[in-house]
From TrEMBL:
Function in brief: Kinesin is a microtubule-associated force-producing protein that play a role in organelle transport.
Transmembrane regions: none
Superkingdom of the source species: Eukaryota
Listed GO CC annotations: kinesin complex; microtubule
Compartments reported by the entry: Cytoplasm, Cytoskeleton
Swiss-Prot/TrEMBL keywords: Cytoplasm, Cytoskeleton, Microtubule, Motor protein, Repeat, TPR repeat
UniProt xrefs under SUPFAM superfamilies: TPR-like (SSF48452)
Record flagged with keyword Repeat: yes
Protein name in UniProt: Kinesin light chain
Lineage, highest ranks first: Eukaryota, Metazoa, Placozoa, Uniplacotomia, Trichoplacea
Summary of subunit composition and partner proteins: Oligomeric complex composed of two heavy chains and two light chains.
TPR repeat windows: 8-41, 50-83, 92-125, 134-167
Xref: Pfam families: TPR_12 (PF13424), TPR_8 (PF13181)
Similarity comment: family membership: Belongs to the kinesin light chain family.
Length: 195
């Protein structure tokens, strides 16, 4: 029938494809159909409902509808806090997603606050040597770079780099991304040989 979690999953998966194709209105339509089924079958306080809100937030972010994206991410966050508590990777991901939006909006202090909250949860749950922890450091480095806080930015990117080298090895795109980020900052500082 029309009101089953598996049907909701199908709509959700179609939303993922539309989002990947850049067909954002169709993506939101599919995610919303999935959300409505999940709300009616699973209730308002379920991880799959949080997932739907988060996915809609991603599309809004891609569209540049930042206030709507934050609203969706916050709904996802509130469910996560209620269901799994503060110290969970899903909650860390929600804080990170809100940080990404603030970053795009130029709200750098708020972005750092969200990224740092995400980082602290990830450190607590995943340990110091995990790719998600590296991403938190990387994101904070990007914001510090935008703020012109170059030494702090290099410090964050270097922490990210060390984790990535340890976990992913020397020949991984994320390692290259870290080196590139540090190089760009050195270039901005006029440290051309280091860049």
């Amino acid at each position: 029938g029309h009101n089953h979690p598996d049907v909701a999953n199908s709509y959700h998966n179609m939303g993922v494809v539309y989002d990947d194709q850049g067909k954002y209105d169709q993506a939101v339509d599919m995610y919303d159909k999935s959300l409505q089924i999940r709300l009616s079958v699973l209730g308002h306080n379920h991880p799959d409902v949080a997932w739907s809100f988060g996915s809609i937030g991603v599309v809004y972010r891609h569209q540049g509808k930042y206030d709507q994206a934050v609203e969706m991410y916050d709904k996802s966050l509130q469910i996560g806090l209620s269901v799994v508590g503060h110290n969970h990777p899903d909650v860390a991901n929600s804080y990170n997603s809100i940080g990404v939006v603030y970053h795009h909006q130029g709200k750098y202090d708020q972005a750092v606050e969200m990224y740092d909250t995400s980082l602290q949860i990830r450190l607590s749950v995943l340990g110091h040597n995990h790719p998600d922890v590296a991403w938190s450091y990387h994101n904070m480095g990007l914001v510090y770079h935008r703020q012109g806080k170059y030494d702090q930015a290099v410090d964050m990117h270097d922490k990210s780099l060390q984790i990535r080298l340890s976990v992913l090895g020397h020949n991984h795109p994320d390692v290259a991304r870290s080196y590139n980020s540090i190089g760009v900052i050195y270039e901005r500082q006029g440290k051309y040989d280091q860049a």
